Amino acid sequence: MSSKNPKKLFVSKDTPAKKVESIRAFGYIYFTLKFQGMVITEEYRLRHKIHMVANYILINVVYYSSYIIELFFLNNLRQLLENVPMNICVTGCILKFLVILRLRPSLIEINKKLERLDSQPMTEKQKDKMRSVIDFCRLISVGATIFYMGVNLTHALAAANSDGSKLAFASWFPYDWRRNAIRHWGSLFVQTMLQLQLALEQVANDFLGVLYLSILSEHLQIIMERFANIHYDPEKTEEDSFQDFIQCLEDHRIIMDIFEIIQNTLSFTIFLQFIVSIFVFSTTGLIYLRFSPSFTETVAVFVFMAAEIAEIYPSCYYSHKFMEKNGSDGLHALLVKLDGLVTKIPETSYHIHADDAAEEDNLGWKTDTNYLGYIHVGK
């Protein structure tokens, strides 16, 4: 069988199944946000606003107040040490959730920019790698959700084995829940449900920025590979020769715009989490060292401390990973590529704004001011 236009045999378009969609990486995190009444869409309906306000009042005001009030009804040091860690954690969770709420309009714009990056040229290998990163982000979301909820269920299990003498966490109830088994189990159930809702809120607080950084790092890697593949082609016009280069610059600018938004959020949450972790580790550790908790209580304490590490380590790791990938090696490769193009087409002038304090052989990206935005191409 022959064809008059054999080239069409090699033309392929991405089917919906093969299309790269970075926003899929955040699907499970967005699902947890729906429990808070927060929907990442331009159309924010009244029912979503009512849900968000009601949830915020219930979890971040009423339930948080129960920990504060309980401070006035403590009888011994152990009760104080059991109350303070959660008091600090809930305080940190509230502050971080306020940051996420303020970030919502920016997330909508970020997702639009990610769609643009997804539409840029990619090899099949790059697409497969991006899909792997997206799937890994979804796995992280599920794992973090299960782990955070498991931490609270572990404390609930310890309370269930206490013969009605304690709850999962030292919070206040407007009645004596120790009076009978019905009150104890009813109070434990209500507290556990509120804690699980708080855990879902905490997942988004701690991992939303991490997932965005992971996706940005992969998009940055693709752009660097596109830079590396740019070369002077004598069969192309001057304008065509630089079309890919200029497009790479624009895509990098988009990535740095997104990173600046995420960085402003992460810098606050990481700083806050460091403070929270210090207090939580010190007070929780004293419970184990000063008293003799049961096996279930000991497991709950160590799981709780592991959760504190999980709240801060991924943010630090992926922030460092992105900055390292966007470091001096990337700029050096860009300058070498640009120098090669300029020598081939000398009539075109290029002006690069470099840091005066940087040495010639050790130039670095100006990530806080979108370094590549300073590169001007013109005749």
Automatic annotation (TrEMBL):
Topology class, membrane: Multi-pass membrane protein
Annotated protein name in UniProt: Odorant receptor
Tagged with keyword Amino-acid biosynthesis: no
Major localisation: membrane
Protein family per UniProt: Belongs to the insect chemoreceptor superfamily. Heteromeric odorant receptor channel (TC 1.A.69) family.
Organism per entry: Hermetia illucens (Black soldier fly)
Subcellular location: Cell membrane
Keyword list, A-Z: Cell membrane, Membrane, Olfaction, Receptor, Sensory transduction, Transducer, Transmembrane, Transmembrane helix
Transmembrane spans: 53-73, 85-103, 266-289
GO cellular component assignments: plasma membrane
One GO BP: signal transduction
Any one GO MF annotation of this record: olfactory receptor activity
InterPro entries: 7tm6_olfct_rcpt
Domain of life: Eukaryota
